[in-house]
Amino acid sequence: MTSDDAPSGAGEDERGIVEDLPDPHRGTDALTGPGATAADQDAARRAELVDSLPRPTADTPLLAELQIDARRRIELRGRKFPRPERTRVITVANQKGGVGKTTTTVNLAAALAQAGLQVLVLDNDPQGNASTALGIDHRAGTPSIYEVLVDAAPMHEAVQESPDVPGLWCLPATIDLSGAEIELVSMVARETRLRTALDGYFDWRRQQGLEQIDYVFVDCPPSLGLLTVNAFVVAREVLIPIQCEYYALEGLSQLLKTIELIQAHLNPQLAVSTILLTMYDARTNLAQQVAQEVRTHFPERTLRTTVPRSVRISEAPSYGQTVMTYDGGSSGALAYLEAARELAERAVRTSTTTDIPAGVPGGPPQEDQ
Ligand SMILES: Nc1ncnc2c1ncn2[C@@H]1O[C@H](COP(=O)(O)OP(=O)(O)OP(=O)(O)O)[C@@H](O)[C@H]1O
Ligand SMILES: [Mg+2]
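== ParA family protein ==
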């Protein structure tokens, strides 16, 4: 069905996701006949190109990798992604350090903005890494999330637009935020201050006649303190990046327990909607085992796309850029683009974390030597 002949409630499926793009995997005939829209024709052209790629065999792994990149480049670059009916607020959390929270936040945000959506990143980590990667000024003294949380300053006074990607906004973090955990302890409504501020920002945008924000990503510090609690209260969804390494799953049960507590006391709507495997190295047994184990425990929530270990991804922040702008055609950028597309096309999960099996493993799989 094309978006032209959809019944009213147009293009919206039962998941509440607006389907403004045809599925590139369906037959091309329906997309090229009379009545085909420009988007249909574009999808047909992309599908034809993908079909024309050589087929790799089991003994051509390099060709297989190249083919994945080529398919992603053809299918995804320059495409518009579906706009959610209402703003999706996604907290990116894992109290484990260095697992790819910030990298995931900024690259998914940039990919979605490049695909035509309005995206806001809340840098909720005193390290300010997300601000750095987005090229956003966050020197001491810059209006930031600290003033928003501690002084209840209006969020719009601190939000900056990305210099590289239109439609991408960031509330920066400065070094001041490192004191906020302690300052917040004695404050009124200490757990809900970020939510109140974000609601105020949305109201302000409406009054200004600005477009609705489609996605908000909150980048968290590697801890489960008050900053992270604020991030869990402001969101409906949690995205957990998991690094495909030894000890990857340790601490996960503590994270899930914290989320359950937040659900019970502060935000009943919160759910772990998405798990993303990062720094995946397909050549090692360990990475494959970790990925397999995560998929066994969270079959629905784990994105099919894994993010490979990539030099381009790790270089980008030193240029104040995401990999999407630094080298948009690289494997790492294409993987984040594919992950962003999956995220955009998935339903907002309504289930809660309570259906997650109790036996979340405390330890990693054995490496088979
Ligand atoms: N896919 C990847 N390939 C290569 N390097 C990566 C990849 N993802 C992240 N990195 C690098 O790994 C390091 C940690 O990543 P990142 O800062 O995103 O983790 P984090 O979970 O936000 O860390 P923290 O807990 O300190 O906030 C960074 O140097 C980053 O550039
Ligand atoms: Mg980080």
